[in-house]
Structures are given as C-alpha cells and as structure tokens.
Batch of 2 targets.
Target 1
Amino acid sequence: MLFVGDDWAEDHHDIELMDASGRRLARARLPEGVAGMARLHALIGEQLGEDADETAEQVVIGIETDKGPWVQALIAAGYRVCAVNPLQASRYRERYGMSGAKSDGADAHMLADMVRTDSHQLRPVAGDSAEAAAIKVVSRAHKSMIWERTRHMQRLRHALRDYFPAALEAFEELTTPDALELLAKAPDPASAAKLTLTQIRTALKRARRRGDIDTKAGKIQAALRAEHLGQPAVVAQAYATTIRAATAVLATLNEQIKTLQGQVEQHFGQHPDAEIVLSQPGLGPILGARVLAEFGDDQHRYTSAKARKNYAGTSPITRASGKKKVVAARYVHNDRLIDALLSQVVPAMTASPGARALYDELRARGTDHFAACRHVANRLVGILHGCLKTRTLYNEETAWAHRSAKPEEAAVAA
C-alpha cells in the first residue's frame, strides 16, 4: 500500500508519499493542472514500479476537498481518494504537537499518516455519475441565488424602513415584479405619491397579478399617499439612488433564478432516479433535484438507511458518559441537504397520512414543532433509501406498515 498526503492550495499541491510503516518515501510541491498531475503519477509510478496502472487501487490519497478537476483526475486514475474534513484534520494535527505550528509540508505529512492509520474510518469520495454532478451544479447555483435574493431583499427592506415606510405597507412582497417596477419608477415618497391608478394597474397586469386589479391598485395608491415620518429631501434622493440599484439587482436575480429553475428541472428529469425521487411525498422537481444532488447517486455510498440518515443530519446523536445520557440533534451537517429535507416535511404531511400521523403523535407527546419535523424528515430519508435500494416507487401502505400494525404484531416484528 502507498499512502499520499495532498495539502492543496489554489496554485499548488504539497505532496508526501508514505509506506505502510510510516516511512517517508518522497515529498514535492507540484503545480496545479496537467503538469502537476503528470508529476504526481510519475512519483507514484516510481514507488509502485512497472505495474503502477494495475496497482493504482493500492494508492490511498488524503486531501481536504472532494471536488474540482484535480480530485476528479485522481479518481479517474483509479486511486482511492479520501476527502478529509478540515475539522478532522485539525483535531488529528494535535496528535503531533500542541504548539499550534503549521506548514503546508507538515499538513501533507499529517494527511498521509492519517490515511495510513485511519483510512478505514474515512469516507472515500463518492463515485457519483456525471448526470448527478450536473444536477448538483445547477441546483446549488439556483439555491444560492435564492439565498442571495433574500439578502438583497432584506437590505432593500431596511433601507425603505429608514426613509420610505409607506412602501412597506403598500407592497407585501418586495421581490415581486410589480413591486420592483413601481419602486424603480418612484423610489422616493414624493414621486410615489404621484403614481396614478393607471400606472399601478399596468404594473400589476404586467406582473400577471390575479384577482381584483382595481382594488389592489387602490390599496397600493392609498398606502403610498398616506402620511408618514420621513427624511429631508436631499437624504431621500440619496436613498432613492440606492433603491434603484437594489431593484435592478433583484430584477436580474429574479430572471436568472427562473432560468436556472428550468435548467434544474431539465437535468433532473433526465436522471434515472428522478421517477423514484418524485414519487416521494412532498418532493417536486426542484426539491427532488436538491435532495438527489446532495445525496449523490453512488449506490455503494450508503451501506444502510442509518448511514444515509446520519449523512443527512436528521438522525439524533447520543452522548453517554457514566450515568449521564443525552440525545441531541446533529448540528454539523450539509446545510443545503437539511434545508431541502425540512422543506419536504410540510407538503409531505399533506400528501401522506402516515407522515401526518407521526407528526401529530410527536406533538401530542410534547415535542416541539421543529423537532417533530426533523423526526418526520428522518423517517422520510429512510423511506427514500429503501425505495432507491429496491428500485421501487413510494407506496404509502408499505412505507408506514410498521405503524399501522397491531401492537402485538409490532412487538413480534421488533
């Protein structure tokens, strides 16, 4: 076996090769890119000999990332690549000394020694398909833009509160096309008060608002013309300049979010697991794509439903010492995945009587709403794992059969 520590930076990699006894065989600083990868293959080939291609699986590489062309090239070469969590690496580094000293070469040595002694405890980089990787790229970009839109909307709201509170009463949602159009046209109290009903109705119709347009337009005009405390005219004009910029950014984000949503649906619809994922209660094309992207589609990555739940962060953790035992939620998890899974819960409780019954039971025991939702999400992850493993679609009766069984039958099954 050959163990390699790879401490990566933006433009170079510090490499150390180590044998099974912990003896350093070679070390080097390699450039990022094709030239660096070729030199790494040469270093490994010198140690493995002429049969390097046939024994590539005997090479274990530790690196503190699981993505990028460099990692993909390592996997394509047949090496076993372990993505080491930076927090794990930091804790492991303390075994060598408590002084806090750190260098790139020392980190490469530490990573090589870590995969030498603890590779059985580390998770190899998943071999997801190119289709799953594509879904991950577009779904993450889509969600990132939604988060970015929320940040910009909050900045807009804070600015309006400082000088134009009437706008907050006039527009319930600041990211809608009609609100952005009217704010861009009249970004200060004086100009907003001059907006006519025709201008407001036109904006509402262009945004395809439903219902009584005339009534909505009247309410918006009345709110914009109501008396409020304000700022001096020169200050209001300065704020108006920033509001125009903010509305332009939000309009662009709305457009790009819609474009990316189409890309997410297109890539997700082409994946062979899409039908199974969409059969789950509460998962549509967007949430389903996020769940599939973050879990990946490597069928050997999760050995059991428990392993998938642990990665999802929905399963609890137990801290036991002596007579003390505490069961708590996992707070170290994939934020994007847990966000998608918790978003699934509410629509799932509408579509699935079993999910609703479990939530109601937990609430009746005194469990708070968030903990109950996390528990339901944990159960739904287990159901998804079973469906993917057996290549079957979701079935309500099968998924919740253990809860509908009679008490004596459930006891026997346990």
Target 2
Amino acid sequence: MVDLKIKKRPIGAVARVQRNGHPQVTSRTGGEIGVVTGASEEGFNPLDLMFASLSACLVLSARIAASKLSVLDRFDGASADVTGEKSAEEPYRIERFIVAITIDGDFTQEERHQIVHMAEEICTVSNTLKTRPEISLSVG
C-alpha cells in the first residue's frame, strides 16, 4: 500500500463586492474567480461553487482511493456530476445533493463501488456537508 503524505496548505477565501458589479473571490493562495448572479449569465454562482467543491473533492479522493487500493495503474480518471435540490421555502438551502460518479479504467463494478465509497469517506467536503459545522461569524 502506498503511504501518502498530506501537505497542508492555506485554506479560505475572501469575497468582495462593490455597489455595482459581481463578487470577486480570492483564495488564500492567490487564486481568483468571478461570481455571477444572473440566472442566464455564464460562470459560477455561489451554489455552483459549492457543487464544484464537492465534485472536485470527490474525483481527487477517488484517485487517492485508487492509490490506497493499489489499483492506480488501472485508474484512467474519474468524473463527478453534482447538482442538488433547493428548498422551496426559507431558509433557502440545498436539501439534497445528487451525485453521479464515473470511474474510468479496467475495473469491475465491485471495484468501482469500492473506489467511490472510499472516496466519499476521504473527501473533506462530503464529510463536512454530512455534519452541521459551526459558523463563527464576526462583523468588521
């Protein structure tokens, strides 16, 4: 089995918006992404970013799972299609995440299930969404 070393990196983001225009989000490592607000605008809105975080975490975790299971040599890739069902009433929230994961490579269905289930256990985002994390809010 491969012993993986996890390197810690700064995490977090700052979003800024002016009186007019769209929010701009900057990560602690300097990455930037613009956020759209219109229903027909191309780009990421806040919910898309949440779905993107879950999908990216799951595919990265699938690759880690394949490595832990010593089958990385047969792992050709993974994709995670994530959407959700939004509540009809306040407080608005995603009530259900709908995730379809595809594992590419020479695997049996049982192996694919094993990779996906292990990926879900590894994924920090899915683990967080399954709990009710505390939000510590301050006003500056």
